[in-house]
Amino acid sequence: MDIKLAQVIYFKLKDKEHTATIKELGADFVVLTVASTPTDLRLSVGMPVKHDVDGDGKADIEISLNDITRGSASITFKSITEKISQPVEKNDTAVGRATNTLFWVILGSFVGLMLLLAIIGRNSSNNNKLNNGI
Predict the structure, then answer these.
(1) In what helix (H) or strand (E) does residue 126 lie, and over which residues does it extend?
(2) Which end of the chain, N or C, is more open, meaning fewer C-beta atoms within 10 Å of its C-beta?
(3) Residue 113: how many CB atoms within 10 A of its CB?
(4) In angstroms, what CA-CA distances link 68 with 16, 33, 99?
């Protein structure tokens, strides 16, 4: 799409209308104002810029400046949806759950073994006392 200085382009994203206006036109760059909430973006030829139009923290649009000729900028607008992975909390994965389970099994086995050895040690101590007549 070819856009001239101060020309307003209207586009719809997620059922809301927005505008893009060339605020400044240089030899190899433009300053583009994207609005419903006005934001100035500096675009250089061949360097796409991702922008969050609706303020939800995710880029909604990719804007590329393709070329500038005779006072007109060739700009491409591309709607995008960036997926942001959700953070994993408290080892809530199959590996994390298996590791946690293994830890508790080993800890429980160790505690059980220590109790068993303490009981056996006490019983053998009591048996020695009885056999020695104490």
Answers:
(1) helix 94-131
(2) C
(3) 10
(4) 29, 17, 58
Cα 30 to Cα 13, 44, 74, 75, 77, distances in angstroms: 22, 7, 10, 10, 14
- What is d(CA 89, CA 37) in angstroms, rounded to the nearest whole number? 34
For residue range 41-88, list pLDDT tens digits in order. Answer: 999 999 999 998 888 888 889 999 999 999 999 999 998 876 544 555
Asked if 53 contacts 34 with a C-beta cutoff of 8 angstroms, the reply is yes
Round to whole Å and give the CA distance between 128 and 134: 9
End-to-end CA distance of the chain: 104
Could you give the CA distance from residue 6 to residue 21 in angstroms, rounded to a whole number? 6
Strand order in the sheet with 2-4: 2-4, 72-79, 61-69, 49-51
C-beta separation of 1 from 10 below 8 A: no
- In whole angstroms, how far apart are CA 15 and each of 18, 45, 54? 10, 29, 11
What residues have CB less than 8 Å from 90, skipping those under 6 apart? 96
